[in-house]
Design brief:
By secondary structure, this protein is of the alpha/beta class. It has nine helices and 18 strands.
């Protein structure tokens, strides 16, 4: 797309750039100043000079990026930089995820990052923000993507775990170490059996607990002396671990993958999993449309995902819609950006 001279956000090789403010939003190449919507690896990268993020994201950002120059801002509070008023508002995606509201000379733009509108006990709920221009993701921007209520979803996961306990085999659920793992942990019934987590999941759990998010007790595999307990365990690990030798220590097991992509026929089979559970930290099709409508924006810019479908649909609804090319990923990119400990 061709940007207008007064656009508050434009595309540059480094990422999405705010010209009057002279800063970037979730840049994918090193820049002097970056506003970060959340700590997933495709949005929060190492190497920027200065980072600004929502206060609840501090623990997970430092866990994933290490020593960075990080300034945090409570949700809803604003600061002014080169005449641009910047505030961060809950996106409901993962812990600390934020939408970036920009106000300059009477114009208001909102860059959503990734978001979901469904309730989630592990992060602040999505907050609609009125604006003139809304930059939305479209990871699951197709009508086939419609999520089930969490109560039904976790009843299914718990029943699968309980059946495996009766059969004497571990229940291994592959899910991304940041966000998805904590959502799974918060939703399952810990009375069914012990819960074991992979070494990549543990530091993120600690960051969530430090932020006040309630998670059940979990253990590393090396902290379970009785192998009989491993055969009753729910094992939460990154997808890469499911196909590794790390899994052998659990003996007989049933494997599952938790992802929005499990909505597609054949996705579970192609991944080699016994089960697939449709768990997503992104908005589904109705959620995307409700979020866009709640902003009141007449211009919508669509990023990563099903951009042509979403743009065409919004144009048919009478909105001015276009796409931004970005290097953001989707659920696949959220998998493990850093090498994982073996235990």
């Amino acid at each position: 797309m061709v940007s207008a001279p007064d656009d508050l956000v434009v595309q540059r090789p480094e990422g999405l750039y705010c010209p009057p403010g002279d800063f970037y939003i979730d840049p994918w190449r090193p820049v002097p100043r970056a506003v970060i919507t959340h700590a997933h690896a495709d949005h929060a990268r190492y190497g920027h000079g200065h980072y600004l993020a929502a206060a609840p994201a501090e623990g997970v950002l430092r866990s994933r990026l290490g020593e960075i120059t990080l300034q945090t801002l409570p949700y809803g509070e604003a600061l002014e930089h080169h005449g641009v008023r910047v505030s961060l508002h809950p996106a409901g995606h993962v812990l600390g995820s934020a939408q970036v509201r920009l106000e300059h000379r009477g114009r208001v733009w909102v860059a959503s990052g990734d978001y979901k509108v469904a309730p989630d006990p592990t992060c602040d709920p999505f907050e609609p923000v009125r604006c003139d221009v809304f930059i939305t993701e479209s990871t699951f921007g197709l009508p086939i993507y419609r999520w089930r209520p969490d109560a039904d979803l976790f009843a299914e996961i718990n029943a699968w775990w309980a059946r495996n306990v009766e059969a004497g085999r571990a229940s291994v659920i592959g899910c991304y170490s940041f966000g998805k793992a904590q959502r799974v942990l918060a939703g399952v019934d810990p009375t069914i059996g012990p819960i074991v987590v992979h070494g990549a999941v543990r530091p993120l759990n600690e960051a969530y607990r430090a932020a006040g998010v309630a998670l059940p007790e979990t253990r590393m595999v090396t902290e379970v002396p009785d192998r009989a307990d491993l055969r009753r365990a729910l094992v939460v690990c990154p997808p890469s671990a499911v196909a590794s030798t790390w899994l052998r220590r659990f003996g007989d097991s049933s494997t599952a993958f938790a992802s929005g992509w499990m909505q597609l026929r054949g996705a579970r089979r192609r991944g080699g999993y016994d089960r697939g559970f449709v768990v997503s930290d992104h908005a589904d099709w109705p959620g995307l449309l409700s979020a866009i409508g709640a902003t009141g924006a007449q211009r919508v810019i669509v990023t990563h995902g099903s951009i042509p479908v979403m743009v065409r649909y919004l144009q048919e609804q009478g909105l001015e819609a276009e796409g931004f090319d970005t290097e953001y990923g989707d659920d696949v990119v959220e998998a493990d950006a850093a090498p994982e400990p073996a235990a």
